[in-house]
Amino acid sequence: MLPLVNQETSLPLESTQDALIQRHAPLAENLWRSGKGGLSATLRGVTLVILGTALLTLSAKINVPLPYVPITLQTLVVLVIGSVYGWRLGGLTLMAYLAEGAAGLPVFAGTIGGLAPFMGPTAGYLAGFVFAAVITGWLSESGWDRSVLGLFVALAIGHAVILASGFAWLAYGLHLGPEKAWLVGIMPFIAGTVVKNALATALVMLARQKVEHRG
Q1: What is the DSSP letter of 24?
Q2: 36 touches 212 (CB < 8 A)
Q3: Phi first, then psi: what are they for 68, rounded to 5°?
Q4: pLDDT tens figures, 73-117
Q5: Which of 40, 67, 90, 153 fits 34 for a cystine, CB–CB 3.0-4.6 Å?
Q6: What does each C-alpha distance from 193 to 39, 156, 213 come to in angstroms?
Q7: What does the radius of gyration of the chain's CA atoms come to, in whole angstroms?
Q8: Which of 110, 114, 94 shows the shortest CA–CA distance to 52?
Q9: E strand or H helix at 52, and its extent?
Q10: Cα separation of 101 and 93, whole Å?
Q11: Domain ranges in the chain?
Q12: pLDDT of residue 76
């Protein structure tokens, strides 16, 4: 039995379909190309994780205190890391950041390190950071970062994951109830989320244009 053939490319149809769904490398790999040797790839990964956790710490310190959860720039950095690093390195970077905080380093918005933030009002958002970075990275590697609209939607999904995780913890983990959790955990962040989503989209698209221009 002859294989199905795509008439335009003269390739087996299965090969053409595989090419269409092939994932592309994260933007960070194209910005910093390394050889196939383990050392250069490891060096790149370690450096990017350190850089990512440093940016997350800095973004946490730029905040507006609120009774339960402060407004920070962290969600912007989380989603940029996810979309630029890809889902594997992005998720690893966020887990490294949380591990630093759990070890007692002052990397979160407040001055308290250790395990206390993982049991307080921000715990749901911190967990959501990891999931958002992984999801956003996966969508970007799937080609959603090829267009402004696709990237904006991918980042919006990441934002929704963070807010939903934070809301669920406030409502049911801390027993504030859905109504109060909405008022203190969602409403104050809606306008900023839209602005940060647009800014993150612009930053990632500019980086992509730089990579494509460099060839």
Answers
A1: P
A2: no
A3: -110, -60
A4: 999 999 999 999 999 999 999 999 999 999 999 999 877 789 999
A5: 40
A6: 38, 8, 30
A7: 20
A8: 94
A9: helix 38-61
A10: 13
A11: 24-214
A12: 96
Q: Please write the tens of the pLDDT for every residue from 134-146.
A: 999 999 999 999 9
Q: How far apart are CA 214 and CA 161, in angstroms?
A: 34
Axis-axis angle for helices 123-141, 87-102 (nearest 10): 160
- At which residue do the structure tokens 């306008």 appear? 191
pLDDT at residue 211 in the model: 78
3-state secondary structure of 12: strand
DSSP 137-206: HHHHHTTGGGSHHHHHHHHHHHHHHHHHHHHHIIIIIS---HHHHHHHHTGGGHHHHHHHHHHHHHHHHH
Q: How far apart are CA 177 and CA 168, in angstroms?
A: 9
Collapsing DSSP states into helix, strand and coil, what is residue 100? helix
Residue 22 Cα to chain centre, angstroms:
21
Q: How many CA atoms lie within 13 A of 26 on its CB side?
A: 24
CA 50 to chain centre: 15
Say whether pLDDT at 28 is over 90.
Answer: no
- Class at the top of the CATH hierarchy for domain 24-214: mainly alpha
Q: Taking 50 as the threshold, does the pLDDT of residue 207 lie above it?
A: yes
Task: Give the model's pLDDT for residue 2.
Answer: 44
Q: What tokens appear for 194 in the block?
A: 């839209």
Measured N-to-C along each axis, helices 148-168 and 74-85 cross at an angle, to the nearest 10 degrees, of 130
Q: What does the chain come to in residues?
A: 215
